[in-house]
Amino acid sequence: MRVSGAKNAVLPLMAASLLADAPVEIVGAPRLRDIATFGKLLSLMGASVERIDAGEDGREAVRIDPREIRKAEAPYDLVKTMRASVLVLGPLVARYGRARISLPGGCAIGARPIDQHLKGLELLGAKTTLSEGYVGVEAARLSGATVYFDMKTVTGTENLMMAATLAKGTTVLKNAAQEPEVCCLAQALRAMGADIEGDGTDEIVVRGVASLRGGRHDVIADRIEASTLLLAGAITGGDVTAEGADPSAMDAVLQKLSESGAEIAASPGLVRVRREGRVRSVNVETSPYPGFPTDVQAQFMAYMCLGDGFSIVRETIFENRFMHAAELRRMGAKIDISGNTAAVKGVPFLSGAPLMATDLRASASLVLAGLAAKGTTEVLRIYHLDRGYEELESKLSSLGAEIARVKE
Ligand code: EPZ
To answer: Are 361 and 388 within 8 A, CB to CB?
Structure first.
């Protein structure tokens, strides 16, 4: 199966276009709801956003022309559906001296505060105010500073890295996130003229420049979608190859898959997973990259429901990311939860049932469980799925799954 471009690489790249003084093209951007929503947000500000044919083997690109931006605001009705909107904050303050965005409320998986984003911008000289649920940020011109993040934050690192590109002087980001999507953004910013080094390590140094040009950037493959597709193969005892996946960005997941008894074959741009015989129960703990990704925790828990013993799943990133457990129990899974730890006792099989999706990755885990269960499973509220997976059901049916989208 061909893996799509990474949603969480495209979103910051779309935000980065606000920094440029010429159009930016993002090649390989998948057709996803969150990407369409981000495009709507940018066009609300005055940018022109369109999908164009990238001219290379039928790939598409999102083209953003930021030259007519006139409103530096992200309204509540958009932000409440997609908290990644916070990524416009750094670029707007750096390029236009101000921004006003609705404070992203919590979401299904947690409170999702942005205190680290605001602390960082204040250290770069911005003034922040909070009124009527909107946060306002102003700065005549940002000036470089050292920012130490209290915890690894992906969009916090991305926001500050983007803001620092046009600040006066040098910015050092300490305890920076090291996700591949952060590196993809840094690479694109360098191609636009930014001076950034250290991306991929926990210390990123940005030297401010006067302006950034446009350009055309390829997005990396979606390592979370790839992990989900490979787990579809593992959970059903099948044989799945993820084309376009970068195995070096998936070490933690591939390691856990092979510990569970799956056979892995990996080379650049290709990862294959096969599984015969019983699933071996293994423990997993989520942590910031390069650790086991929180965005694969739900899918892996579904897989562990069929293990040969006990699997301890610990979620250390978000405070409420076990909602899929209640749904899996309805299929016969044995899962005990206390705090951020779930004990999964493997059972010989799961039984199909009507299920409710609650958030993007939990809905993927319910689909995986349904693929392996006896009988039919219906997953409701799959608009969650459409936020992060491009045509998941057609990808899975081309792998042999019996799956179809039906009217709710
Ligand atoms: C990014 O969210 C991803 N989204 C998430 O993917 C992913 O789950 C998450 O990183 C963790 O890997 C995008 O990249 C668009 P964080 P982000 O800031 O940046 C706390 C998906 O499924 N925190 O790394 O919002 C926070 O509450 C999405 O595609 C603060 O306390 O996550 C969390 O506990 C879901 N204050 C932890 O840090 C802050 O200012 C990590 O959050 C910022 C974060």
So the answer is: yes
What is the pLDDT averaged over residues 17-25? 98
Token duo for residue 178 = 């090291």
Ligand 1 centroid vs 340 CA: distance in angstroms? 16
Q: Whose CA is nearest to atom 28 of ligand 1?
A: 295
- DSSP readout, 18-37? GGBSS-EEEET----HHHHH
Question: Percentages helix, strand, coil for the chain, rounded to the nearest 5?
Answer: 35, 25, 40
Closest residue by Cα to atom 37, ligand 1, is 317
Identify which of 147, 153, 173, 324 to mutate to test ligand 1's pocket (most ligand atoms within 8 A of the CB): 153
Across residues 18-26, what is the average pLDDT?
98
Q: Are strands 203-207 and 263-267 parallel, antiparallel or unpaired?
A: unpaired
For the entire predicted model, the pTM comes to 0.97
Query: What does the pLDDT read at residue 85?
Result: 93
Q: Is 107 one of the catalytic residues? A: yes
Q: In whole angstroms, give the CA distance from residue 60 to residue 39.
A: 15
> H/E element holding 76?
helix 76-79
pLDDT exceeds cutoff 70 at 107: no
Question: Residue 252 corresponds to which amino acid?
Answer: A
pLDDT at 237: 97
CA distances from 9 to 189, 231, 289, 362 (A): 12, 22, 14, 20
